[in-house]
Structures
1.
Amino acid sequence: MLSIKIISPFDQKTIDSLKSGNRVLITGTIYTARDAAHKRMYEAIQRGESLPFNVEGQVIYYVGPTPQKPGQIIGSAGPTTSERMDKYSPSLLDYGLKGMIGKGYRSKEVVDSIKKNKSLYLAAIGGSGALIARTIKSMDVIAYEDLGTEAVRKITVENFPAIVINDSYGNDWYADKEINQSK
Amino acid sequence: MRIIHYEDIVEKVSKACQDVNFDIGSDVFDSFKKSLETETSENGKYILEQLIENAVIAKEERVPMCQDTGVAVLIVELGQDCHIVGGSLYSAINEGVVKGYSDGFLRHSIVGNPISRTTSTTYNTPAVIHIELLPGDQLILNLSAKGAGSENMSSMKMLKPSDGLQGVKDFIIETVRIAGPNACPPLIVGVGIGGNFERCAYLAKKSLFRPIGFRNISKEISTLEKDLIEEINKLGIGPQGMGGNTTALDVKIEMEACHIASLPVAINLNCHASRHKKIIM
């Protein structure tokens, strides 16, 4: 199986063309946010305030990188467990978010919201932070700098490897993998 | 009476914190390679290949293999004829962790207050330190960098004695099944059986310090370990939950006596980044 090369932010045509279980290599712009940043963004939405970046059409990667060594763009930067963001994701998807990258299961609410909003959830390979860091070509902290590793970063990636878990048609690779394996 | 200096402990702990995060160690690395030969799913093989490449990069460039550089957990074997001078053993270990994590550009992953999540602590401390007092004059520090992805999917239950061996096995398999992709398989499954409530959890943690492939010396337990490896690898979870037959790289069990009314079982999951080091002073 070959990996499909895609551009981030994802356009609707790209999203529609992908199916759960597809391996992809992502090139383009991605924003990073994990627990603490999600809580702040969610609370901002509740209060009707603007978000630190326009999430419409964008992709969020759940990661808290290690501090970069001198000369490095970013430290190790593998995915963190996505379910901790489940409480906040449907609001962001309704706000126009088109992609999420993390690892592990999503709640039923998130899976339904992915289908409703015609978006994607992808898994990066947990515990491969050194390898993933090599695909990150630039990094800027753009919001919530006080959160340290949990600050929001804008990153550009080149051939960032991931696997589609939940596609826009309601398929779930984790749930379907036994069926897919026996094919 | 053997004298060990505070500063020596600080230095050794600092170096070990960095080494475990950069170099996965041959037991885990070899088991990745072995699993690649037997893994049946295409995505599973792809992931194992990426993990092997990741381990090579981390070791060569001395960067963390995973961004969750963990909480430093130490099981200290302290000989009662060993005397530590220059400060307390606890302070020496914590100072070593601060130095190791900051010098090595490792992540500070600890919040001081688990509810408000606001107060910050000194760089990635406190370490979790367990001390076992033993005969002799040696000081051995068993250090691990334990990530939260797998720690969060760990579980503990007070079973009924009538649940027996089948009840124990069912609970272990169910824990691995529920953890699925969240705990970052392929896993090392650490199990404590017996003791009491807190002792059982400690036994599960302690079992994870045994290198991959090393069986419990008891024939009864080593047989159970082998049976469980086989059963877990039939679950179909596979590397990162993408499907396949490499779900557990190993199962480790430690067992102790317990109350006539109890059957405590604790399961401490470890992701494939099983980072351990033994420091003999």
2.
Amino acid sequence: MGAQLRVYKRRIRSVTATKKITKAMEMIAASRVVKAQRKVRSSTPYAEELTRAVTAVGTGSDAKHPLTTEAENPTRVAVLLLTSDRGLAGAFNANAIKAAEQLTERLEREGKEVDTYIVGRRGLAHYNFRERAVAESFAGFTDEPTYADAKKVAAPLIEAIEKETADGGVDELHIVYTEFVSMMTQSAIGSRMLPLRLEEVAEETSSTKDEVLPLYDFEPSAEDVLDALLPRYVESRVYNALLQSAASKHAATRRAMKSATDNAGELINTLSRLANAARQAEITQEISEIVGGAGALADANAGSDN
Amino acid sequence: MAAELHVALVAADREVWSGEATLVVARTTSGDIGVMPGHQPLLGVLESGPVTIRTSEGGTVVAAVHGGFISFADDKLSLLAEVAELSDEIDVQRAERARERAKSEDDTPAERRADVRLRAVTTGR
């Protein structure tokens, strides 16, 4: 076998091995997307009921709670960025980080100081590499987040918003995560979690759109209910965002691995053609050498006969 | 007037139970509260404790609920809980072990949670 043919054969072997790996990763991601989607769906009833309750308290009482009223001059805000622990997911993390940076820039232009909270090793690595301050970070659960994880993430945020701004607290809470629109579309979005905009909250729950909320009797009192309700609301929003982010990450991985597998297939095709051409060229060369050699021998024999 | 109310007991990550009922008893921060059809709209904070649901078919469903809310309007009752378990889902031995462990470690909230679980099991039978 010629040297060139050997090189092609070796490359085809290595690309085939890579293709097998990416194909397996694609299949794993595909099954995880389905699981993650199911988790998103099963968390919806709780989130919906909670949103309904928050809207009910917000509209049904004139209680003034620090978490529903906007500060006159917000000076410090918290931004929670959700990324993944592992890469190989195309532009998934890059998009989320970009969205967070745009949001941070906008908030800073408005004269607000931004505290960044990060979930996922990828986002943390990005910020650490650029030596940017990170208030707190969490990692190790982005593939399959549980409610306990959401509580852990939400706890410092709730603490920060309940503190006075002068003592290092924050006035607003923003969250940047990747929304799972469909298998093919996931978009990084940034939204304000607190203080609540009641109109927005009401819009999110389509079932309450044309419905007049009844006048509730609060037990023990509207303030106490709101006090207990809002941390749960933040936790549930964080949980939902974590789940969507996980589903989006798996979908992005699936897509990235699918195109890697496709590219590997294409590369194998091209390399096989080149290898075939090389083999054919080798054969042609051998034939012409033999024919040429035989011709020369025949000529020599014919010459000696004379 | 409808003689039954629609109950949905939802935990943070799943719907635990839903169906028609005639009476629901839950523990709020200011004491036990019983809700029957036609009750006035209500929104309350739940303590951890057992929730008893008397179903329309005459059966009783008991669940251990740890923190959450009760909201009632238009004969629809929602019980929101971070953690909720039906009495027949609770592993008695595990709950007992958890209680022993919490006792030895002086972990009062954990002990109370295990206690609530065990109580839900005994009332559910």
3.
Amino acid sequence: MDLLRFITCGSVDDGKSTLIGRLLYDSDSVSLDVLAAIENRPAVHGAIDLALLTDGLRAEREQGITIDVAHKYFTTPRRKFIITDAPGHVQYTRNMVTGASNADLAIVLVDARLGVIEQTRRHTLVAALLGIRQFVLAVNKMDLVGNDEAVFDAIVAEYTTVTRQLDVADVVAIPLSALHGDNVVRRSHKLAWYAGPSLLEHLEQIDVTEDVSADEPRFQVQYVIRPQQVDLPDYRGYAGRIQSGVYRKGDKVRVLPSGLETEIEALEVGQQEVDTAVAPQGVIIRLRDNVDVSRGDSIIVASSKPHVTRAFEATLCWMDERTLEPGQKFLLQHHTALVKASVSALLSKTNVETLLRSAAESAHLNDIVRVRIKTAVPLVADAYQKNRATGAFILLDEQTGATLAAGMIDATE
Amino acid sequence: MSSIPSLDYLDRLEAEAIHILREVAGQFERPSLLFSGGKDSIVLVHLAKKAFRPGRFPFPLVHIDTGHNFPEVLEFRDQLAAELGEKLIVRSVEATIKKQKLRDGTGKFPSRNPLQTYTLLEVIEEFAFDACIGGARRDEEKARAKERIFSIRDEFGQWDPKRQRPELWNIYNGRIQRGENVRVFPISNWTELDVWRYIQRESIALPNIYFGHSRTCVVLPSGQLLGLSEHLTLDDDDEIVERQVRFRTVGDSTCTAAVESDAVTIDDIIADLLLAKVSERGATRLDDNISEAGMEDRKRNGYF
């Protein structure tokens, strides 16, 4: 059985929470007591309000909107699903960025009566920017447009112009009604002109296997294990997660940023020595030679030659109330490496509705900007669109530790 | 050349949890692992072995003893700690009640669940813990579904759902200011079914109260069954029955109901679960039903 993580994006009244509620409800993933709790609430249109299955905070129930990212889980015989439900409103773009950062697929919801609107563009842009490659266009509320095929076709055509602009190739469009359950879990005769799979059928069928052997090998040290016990006096293991690619016992490796070369003497997974390990496994690497390695350093297979740099261009999603201006200093967390950094220049800002870029002198909450970054210590920097693991970083406030921005490396200098 | 391992969903959940545990070790000075003796914290201990052996755990196990624990669970706890050779810190709610002059749980089923928060905050202060690892899962409850994996608490232990840091990718930001601490939930993305399937795959030992056994129970007005213990005050007309039961969660014995079950093996339990239509907390917790925001309120006040 495998695992699929997906995000649902939609505007305030697209029925996103209802869709998730419907997926859980119709796949028998909602338990009786949870149903009883929501059935105690006033009904909408005589049906139980499935949106109540996802809105977890009191303020969300009071206002009837989703504020924060929520996680929901369900399992079918084929697959475990992790749903990230992110709010759709523009003031919560940072929450959507957060949700998309951990998803492999995006369901973009539109209201069949409204079609593609500005928010649809923004959601698709953010999901594509965060490296999601598989999209589902869920055209909801088909019942309110008489289940009309022509309406659906027009929306699909319009959406295609958006995805083309963003170089998103893999889009499957599905007409549905979350409120009535049409084409969500089961196909509906009301939409008989549609020959494709229901939403759940599609989510169960799509290929999630990735060929990790094609990826550049990357590993970063999280923690050094030194038992210093009588029976293991010299044991020194570098614990971390393989970020991408494959590692093998005997591989020639280079420690970065120091550049020292050695060889993998042993590879351990869960207290056992193995010959091969792959992303995203947690491993312990033991090295042939006693070289200086600490948390934040990378151990890279010597045949792979990543950029090790103190300056690069990146796209930031700015997530804080204060204004970003050139010259400001931060802490940059690149997984286990924590270094001082500055934003040396703002290059451009992306208009999330028109998808066009323009010059920028500052950035505000929810802005998406291209910047130049300098770091105090060199980083192993891959472009995000090539490597979602090592191309990502966050910026922190040095004093409070607050997370200020999500960053994606665009190009190294 | 050796073949490339293919990973299933349990391998991926395991890798995620090990990564989180090692981030705690790498980022904090004085972490701890909150150990209840329940299956989720036992799974955490198993994951910690995978993350840190052959080294020692970089944190002690901390148990908040309510004084209402199942004796089987305490026995299991001591045995596990001895086998591991790791440090176990036990602090009792009883002592906190005396020291802070708190009112003990009263009534027919006196719950000490809310009182645990006081002891937890005391032990955090006593050892200056900057991170506490817990076994909470997001599928348990609606408020938990919105909590981060690294969840920052102020010096009063309070969770503020509106001021949570965005948690991007698998980059965990544990940088905090003096007085703050972080609760860390490595198995946030696991469901009850995932936990059981993992216990099955890894052959992890559990306290025997998780498996079907005969027990003397009180029948509650709701129909739920509560194991008979010295902490309950019975009325003359209470219905006392002998039933084949097991526990789905292991909390305070005064507020953790048993479910009727013949499941004696892990396979039986998984089969039971696939059929079960009542969620874990709903089936067995007497304290979450109080209000729709029960858990959100308790977390805001420093609860696990």
